[in-house]
Amino acid sequence: MSRADHMDVAAYALGVLDQQDTERFEEHLATCWACAAELETMVPVVGLLSGIDGETMTALEQTRTDPALLDRTLVAVRLHRRRTRVRRLLATAAAVVVFGGLSGVGVAGLRGGGDGERIPQAEPTLTTPVTGPPADPTSDPGDPGTGGNEQEGEKHNATDPATGVKTTMWVASKEYGTKIDLQLTRLPGPRTCRLVVIRKNATSEVVSTWSVPGGGYGTSTNQLPLELSASTSAGLPDIEKIQVQSVDVNGIASPLVTVADL
Question: Which residue of 27, 36, 77, 170 pairs with 181 in a disulfide if CB–CB is 3.0 to 4.6 A?
């Protein structure tokens, strides 16, 4: 019984022997308990070794007489397996990238943790530009209501022929009395001013005081008007006139502009 007969166990298990060698090995197997036992232990791994072709087995057979061939064969097999693994890893990574780019975000957003409940997704919000009401082309640029809230009450315009001071005044009747909004221009400075309400019963009330800087208001030096608001407990029907007065260092008041057509 030759040594080659014992070496054919793996080749027989993989089915790579030709018909003549297969018949010869089966005759040997019937009388060799050692090969029979070896063949039985190889059965579980036959599936793993089935990928090895006949040429590889022939090369392995030849290595028993050529150690150098064994080394070259092992190197070639390792290189082939390494290249195969690399190609599989690259293919898998590419598939993951493509799949993740197409559906990963959508799938991840559909379900929560382990409860399988659907997570509501935020929808994109479309922003609508918000614009204010169009400006009134007929508005007076000097009107303090321009570009802001409209003034409340009856509007009165007055210009003093002696001082040249000009005012626009809005007077509104309130439960507590009267509300007064006014704008002053052509008001030189520096000076101290006050707003006085003169009732029809000849009594008066100072409802506001302020200082005017050297450039004044609504002048060539300072074109911005002076705007202010005040209130009085006097009812609108009880008011005869509203007057802006200038007060000197001695406390003497003199009228700058008066609104009397209330």
Answer: 170
